[in-house]
Write a structure and sequence with these properties.
elongated; Met-tRNA_synth_2; protein biosynthesis; alpha/beta; six-stranded parallel sheet; Rossmann fold; ATP binding; tRNAsynth_Ia_anticodon-bd; 476 residues
């Protein structure tokens, strides 16, 4: 990770053409965990989230619903910002690509690239997937359908647009990748994008004719065109931290640690990097690429009717159970499956019978004793080094395995020493050791399950410890 005492973390911006789904909850929860972890390490953290609000898909959706486009995006931005409360997120910036400052920054970015000779105009004909908001080559299509959006027809765009000289940046990108071997995590995705760039780059369209698609940022000095949504949206990563008018703020936070799904690999690690080079902005950020969540073995899709709104899951099961499943049971690097049956098994096994039972029984034993259990922050506020290593590799699942190993060890220690049969100093020794373990567990859980960690810390702060209702009541 970036080695300085301020760190900038961002997710990709969700496209507001539908409600939030579980796949994006994964990305924002992972990013939130790292942001909280960096704060525990003493970093000043700028954590960016927000919404991508321009483009053809959104314009079409607003028309379908008979709404003004701005009204439509306002409604959906509010739905995504509601994730902050539902998932207990700690982001301190919510950017919208319809924000006046972002619009100004996007236009300034365009002018930088244009001044560098990287923008030109030409007539072209291209196959286009509205679902991806991306141009497609025949090699990317299966039976003339986008594999990511097989229920959408491929559109043919034939018009005069502005283009970005992506082809110019093949060698600069390859040189950049060579100098920054940890630029993309995991390694497999880094190899994938290097191979893509080595295969040659094609210039791509960065504008649309306004009378055909009016919902976009006007191109500087050409009111007949609006910016292509990808060009506009990618600029949020610099506009969010003050670029170009507050360079003191920008210099404090740049560069960035970014979370992105594998479907964003090309845009985030090649397209955007080339755009930064064109605009004269140096960057050595690190990008973590996560896999997808499937539901009952199928990719999440509105057409299949298998989308799951994380806010609905939270309402039923609680915030931390959702965070725990996403972080511990979803492989950070690869695709993983979600079913409610699996979720409930994990809830009962790891949370109710595991952590919850340990905390409950230890608190009851302490309450029944006459001992004091003083609390010293310097003793208990220590992060496990193995957890630090796992989080620096974005292995959320491995980090939580370390915590749950400690849960199991503490439970085993209580069972083997049978404190209910002990008295005096022997009883105090066993209980004190168990309390110490639980306090360490709570501190090491703060990044992952902040609400649960706070409850445990409050309950076990001492000097007297009282039993309380279970953290995670068993599901029937």
């Amino acid at each position: 990770m970036i080695d300085k005492k301020s760190v900038y973390i961002t997710t990709t911006l969700p496209y507001v053409n539908s409600d939030p789904h579980l796949g994006f909850a994964l990305e924002i929860t992972q990013a939130d965990t790292v942001a909280r972890f960096k704060r525990q390490e003493g970093f000043d953290v700028f954590f960016n989230f927000g919404t991508d609000e321009h483009g053809l898909k959104i314009y079409q959706k607003a028309l379908e619903q008979g709404k003004e486009t701005q009204t439509y995006v306002d409604e959906y931005a509010e739905k995504f910002d509601a994730l902050k409360k539902a998932l207990n997120l700690s982001y301190n910036n919510f950017i919208r690509t319809t924000d006046p400052h972002h619009i100004m920054a996007a236009r300034g970015f365009w002018e930088r690239c244009d001044k560098n000779g990287d923008i030109y105009k030409k007539n072209y004909k291209q196959k286009y997937c509205v679902g991806c908001e991306l141009e497609k080559t025949d090699s990317e299509l299966i039976e003339n359908k986008c594999p990511l959006h097989p229920n959408r027809d491929i559109e043919i765009i034939e018009e005069e647009n502005y283009f970005f000289k992506f082809s110019k940046y093949q060698q600069p990108l390859l040189e950049f990748y060579k100098k920054n071997p940890d630029f993309v995590v995991p390694d497999g995705k880094f190899s994938e994008i290097r191979s893509f760039v080595e295969g040659g780059l094609q210039d791509f369209s960065i504008s649309r004719i306004k009378n055909k698609m009016p919902w976009g940022i006007p191109v500087p000095n050409d009111p007949e065109h609006v910016m292509f949504v990808w060009f506009d949206a990618l600029v949020n990563y610099v506009s969010a931290i003050g670029w170009p008018d507050d360079m003191k703020k920008f210099d404090k936070w740049w560069p960035v640690v970014q979370f992105a799904g594998k479907d964003n690999l090309r845009q985030q690690t090649a397209t955007w990097q080339a755009m930064l080079m064109s605009a004269g902005i140096s960057n050595s950020k690190q990008i973590f690429i996560h896999g997808f969540i499937t539901v009952n073995g199928q990719k999440i899709s509105k057409s299949l009717g298998n989308t799951i709104n994380p806010i609905d899951v939270v309402k039923k099961y609680g915030t931390d159970p959702v965070r725990y499943y996403l972080l511990s049971k979803i492989n950070p690097y690869d695709d993983s499956d979600f079913t409610f049956e699996k979720f409930e098994d994990v809830y009962n096994g790891d949370l109710a019978n595991g952590l919850g039972n340990l905390v409950s029984r230890c608190a009851k034993l302490c309450e029944n004793s006459s001992f004091d259990f003083p609390y010293d922050i310097s003793i208990y506020h220590i992060l496990d080094k193995k957890i630090e290593v796992s989080l620096n590799d974005y292995r959320f699942d491995e980090a939580l395995k370390i915590v749950w190993t400690k849960v199991a060890e503490t439970d085993k220690y209580i069972n083997e020493n049978e404190p209910w049969k002990l008295e005096g100093d022997k009883l105090k020794g066993v209980l004190s050791s168990s309390v110490e373990s639980i306090r360490h567990i709570a501190y090491n859980l703060k990044s992952f399950l902040p609400e649960t960690a706070e409850k445990i810390e409050a309950q076990f702060k001492g000097p007297k410890i009282k039993s309380d209702r279970s953290l995670f009541p068993r599901l029937p």
